Inverse folding.
């Protein structure tokens, strides 16, 4: 019916349409629904109505997606029961007893976001729900909280050698190298490429500086001023309703979170068969490396389920049995829109992949380019694909099979570790991973963007509007101080890099004093 060129153009236009519609209507569900339905209709004619519905059913019943939804559900239930039991209020009470200033709240938010390095979903869900009452109390905007937890979660998870990202990252790297005739160990390439992961490193530095000095750029200024204007409002978020519940012992807060973390790490180290694999793990000297059969999503589901069970135990022990159903209903109500948005985002991303939007963008790379410009071009393309599709992992799956062959076709396969060609391989692969995080930070279609907004208690549109200026500044600094010096073989000027971050924030940012 249509030519391939039309499909390719459609795949580029639809994400732009979805993003513009979401910004105009401020309703991400409306934007995703309209864009996905329109895309299927234009792609398949009247039959697109059926394919749209089939795509939704397929994405709802997909095992990986079901695990993500189950994890989100169990995490919400865990948080709801911890709130009902009074253990969440005990966390806030402990933090409040030590934190006396807004600056300390901001810094704590950024540091806690990096502390949950093992998974970006867990980071935003735990930190957002735990810190939201505290930021409300100290009148820090929820947009600022969403930024602090979102801009630390994915960057640190993508950099960490023990996280839910690492297995997927290594698998993408290994498959693309094998298909191109390369036999390097993917973990070694991953580690050698860390110094070239400019954007995630810069994003973490910027986030910490923003937290310490309360630097507000663009729409964040308005959000912070509005939070100060609402200072006379009674804080409804920290309404612990002492007539119905009481502060639980701190152990009831530590048990669910501790159980979740411990079981997640055990899954990483021992694999899916914990009990049968434990003797072999001990005999091997308990190595700190990820098990080859590690399933990150299954790990998240079982860990969050155990955390919910301990939260249930805490609520029962604190004599809040009658409030259990209330806590569960509250959690389900809060996550209803998130479930819908996630399913629509997956449906839309599948459509964009079918239209080959990512391959169309990646095909713009000329075959006779200066090979040292490949990391820069790859970073920008990776960011565009992630921005358009709203998925970091999907971006990796699209670009690794395309970029690696281009690199090999220009350099050949006969190079050794430590050579210029090998460094180019490591830096280019790192550029894919870095660009995926950058585009994800700017996209309202991203699942981590959606979850961060939900956990912080703000809208997706408001979160994206206040976060993208920081992300753009970080990307520009990465290009000017990272990728361009690499093209001219000037090394990695970390001092210049850090100075540029401070200068950019000083020029573009507005320091709203914490006491103002």
């Amino acid at each position: 019916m249509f030519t391939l060129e039309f499909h390719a153009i459609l795949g580029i236009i639809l994400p732009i349409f979805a993003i513009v519609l979401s910004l105009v209507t401020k309703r991400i569900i409306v934007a995703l629904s309209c864009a996905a339905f329109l895309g299927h209709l234009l792609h398949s004619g009247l039959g697109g109505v059926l394919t749209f519905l089939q795509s939704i059913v397929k994405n709802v019943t997909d095992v990986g997606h079901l695990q993500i939804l189950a994890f989100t559900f169990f995490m919400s239930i865990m948080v709801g029961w911890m709130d009902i039991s009074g253990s969440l209020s005990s966390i806030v009470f402990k933090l409040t007893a030590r934190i006396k200033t807004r600056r300390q709240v901001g810094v704590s938010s950024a540091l806690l976001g990096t502390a949950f390095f093992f998974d970006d979903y867990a980071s935003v869900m735990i930190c957002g729900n735990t810190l939201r009452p505290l930021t409300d109390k100290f009148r820090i905007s929820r947009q600022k909280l969403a930024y602090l937890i979102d801009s630390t979660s994915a960057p640190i998870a993508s950099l960490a050698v023990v996280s839910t990202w690492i297995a997927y990252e290594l698998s993408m790297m290994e498959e693309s190298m094998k298909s191109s005739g390369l036999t390097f160990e993917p973990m070694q390439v991953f580690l050698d490429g860390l110094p070239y992961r400019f954007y995630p490193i810069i994003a973490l530095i910027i986030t910490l500086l923003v937290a310490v000095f309360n630097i507000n750029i663009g729409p964040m200024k308005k959000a912070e001023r509005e939070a100060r204007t609402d200072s006379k409002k009674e804080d409804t978020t920290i309404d612990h309703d002492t007539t119905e519940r009481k502060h639980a012992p701190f152990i009831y807060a530590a048990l669910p979170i501790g159980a979740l973390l411990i079981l997640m790490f055990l899954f990483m180290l021992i694999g899916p068969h914990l009990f049968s694999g434990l003797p072999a793990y001990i005999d091997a000297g308990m190595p700190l490396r990820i098990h080859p059969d590690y399933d990150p999503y299954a790990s998240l589901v079982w860990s969050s389920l155990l955390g919910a069970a301990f939260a249930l135990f805490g609520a029962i022990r604190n004599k809040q049995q009658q409030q259990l159903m209330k806590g569960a209903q509250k959690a389900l109500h809060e996550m209803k829109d998130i479930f819908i948005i996630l399913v629509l985002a997956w449906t839309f991303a599948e459509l964009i992949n079918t239209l080959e939007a990512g391959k169309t963008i990646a095909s713009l790379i000329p075959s006779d380019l200066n090979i040292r410009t490949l990391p820069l071009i790859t970073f920008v393309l990776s960011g565009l694909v992630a921005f358009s599709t709203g998925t970091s992992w999907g971006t990796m799956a699209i670009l690794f099979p395309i970029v690696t062959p281009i690199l090999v076709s220009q350099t050949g396969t006969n190079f050794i570790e430590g050579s210029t060609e090998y460094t180019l391989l490591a830096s280019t692969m790192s550029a894919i991973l870095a660009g995926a995080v950058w585009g994800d930070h700017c996209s309202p279609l991203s699942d981590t963007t959606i979850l961060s907004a939900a956990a912080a208690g703000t809208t997706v549109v408001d979160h994206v509007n206040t976060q993208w200026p920081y992300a753009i500044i970080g990307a520009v600094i990465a290009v000017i101080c990272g990728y361009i010096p690499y093209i001219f073989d000037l090394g990695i000027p970390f001092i210049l890099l850090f100075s540029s971050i401070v200068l950019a924030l000083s020029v573009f940012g507005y320091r709203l004093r914490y006491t103002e």
About this structure: The two ends are 61 Å apart (CA to CA). Strands lie at 215-216, 510-511.
